[in-house]
Amino acid sequence: MSATLADALASGRGIELLTKILNRCVEDEDGCWLWTGAKTKGHGVIGRTSGTRYVHTIVYELMVGPIPEGLEPDHLCRKRACCNPKCIEPVTHKVNSLRGVGAPAVNARKTHCSSGHEFTEKNTYITKEGWRTCRTCHANHERRRRAS
């Protein structure tokens, strides 16, 4: 795998398309190749005859190989515009989601409920919807409800 944009351009694999893409990238201080062209939700996109595709996926496939079935590319650098294959790892959707900064990822990393009770196996109930619920808080809520 190439270390710099210049090395990637000299690699010879899918050279025409790779050159077109990498000429529209700038390398930042972290070694990320940031796409300066069109973007969708921060991800670089390029129009092809087969439709619009993500730039990071094209570069990964040209320089590393196909992304295995059932996996999706995850930006290890957390920069959506980056298309450096060193920053991309094929992972399951669940892993990709949990590594992110969205609500599912934030909630999954929580170790305590909003009242400060620790999420332990004994103190945690999983609802049929898949949500974690604090047993202590739930018991307190039910006690107050019954008392009123």
What level of helicity do the residues show? 25-40%
* Total number of strands: 9
**Rough outline:** elongated
Structural class: alpha+beta
Strand content: 15-25%
- The H/E string reads HHEEEEEHEEHHEEH
Number of domains: 2
- Give the averaged pLDDT, no decimals: 89
Using the 3D structure, state the CATH architecture of the largest domain: Alpha-Beta Complex
| CATH level 3 topology of the largest domain | Homing Intron 3 (I-Ppo) Encoded Endonuclease, Chain A
End-to-end C-alpha gap: 67 Å
**Sheet with the most strands?**
3 strands, antiparallel
CATH class category of the largest domain: Alpha Beta
Number of helices: 6
**Uncertain residue segments:** none
Widest sheet, order of strands: 3-4-5
Radius of gyration: 22 Å
What does this 3D model show about the protein?
It is a single chain. With 148 residues, the protein is an alpha+beta fold. Helix content is 33%, strand content 22%. It has helices spanning 5-9, 15-22, 55-63, 93-99, 103-109, 135-147; strands spanning 25-27, 33-35, 39-40, 43-48, 51-54, 72-75, 88-91, 124-126, 132-134. Strand 3 (39-40) and strand 4 (43-48) form a beta hairpin. The relative contact order is 0.10.
Features:
two-stranded antiparallel sheet, 33% helix, 148 residues, 3-stranded antiparallel β-sheet, alpha+beta, single chain, Homing Intron 3 (I-Ppo) Encoded Endonuclease, Chain A
